[in-house]
Amino acid sequence: MKKRVFSGMRPTGRLHLGHLAGALSNWIRFQDEYDCFYCIVDWHAMMSDYSDTRFMKDNCREVLLDWLGVGLDPDRSTLFLQSHVPHHAELHLALSMITPLGWLERCPTYKDQILNIQNKDLSTYAFLGYPVLMAGDIMLYKAELVPVGEDQSAHLELTREVVRRFNHFFGEVFQEPQTILTKTPKIPGTDGRKMSKSYGNAINIADDPEEIWEKLRTMVTDTARERRSDPGNPDKCPVWDLHKAFNQDMEQRAFIDKGCRTAGIGCIECKQALYSHLMAILEPIQSRRRAFEANEEDLLEVLKKGAMKAEKVSEVTIEEVIKAIGFISR
Question: Do 127 and 167 form a contact (C-beta atoms < 8 A)?
């Protein structure tokens, strides 16, 4: 039997090129290798956006459309909403009973976000405990593998600690999930920082061609190249990082690299070449996305089918948990 993979994304709006080059490209490949469960984790989104949930439905829909557009297949993967499977909340409650407060307070991500996110009140019980919900998401499907980038592998250690603690108290119910380390290329935004919706520097998968070109046209380049006649350094240019991620024409890349260093080409020519490659990738994705977008019933059916598949697995796990804890069986 195929090993099971679990991963999720918070619904904060349309996905961007960073998602495409990173997680999504790997998720698509995993569909043929593993039993994949991909979850839109809307409860997680509420932990930081609880004061304004007006856009939650639309954001979930946008993420699902992007998933289907890039090629996630509901016949080969289980695609579903976290809130559509009540067992996520139930296992979260059970695990919160045994997780020491100190484990959560020393979580590096928690400390970092408390310091850096100043426009939201994150001093809530749920935000402190979000790693417990994350652990429950993974444990609910007894996922053997969780794909993460190299800089995120430490995040799974808390899940493994929770698994060990549960098994210590109640017997061997869960196995410790392992990471699939996935290489994630550096994807800068239009201002040179990491591409992120919160920075306002993202090129979205679903942006129309004119909007994509305008974002590329005004994207920062090597700041030392002030004039067309100045030689540049691609290694210091965010546009070049996008070429490395999305332009697989090695001959053209060599030409652009040399042309930049010798001032043989200008930044606009470099960006035009990148735009052509991006649109060759994005046009079929956007076409598939529009096809699903045109039929709301199909979208709802994908979520319904996914939730049924997920609940069939999660129900077995919850029954094991109830029995192991010593509650009266349902």
Answer: no
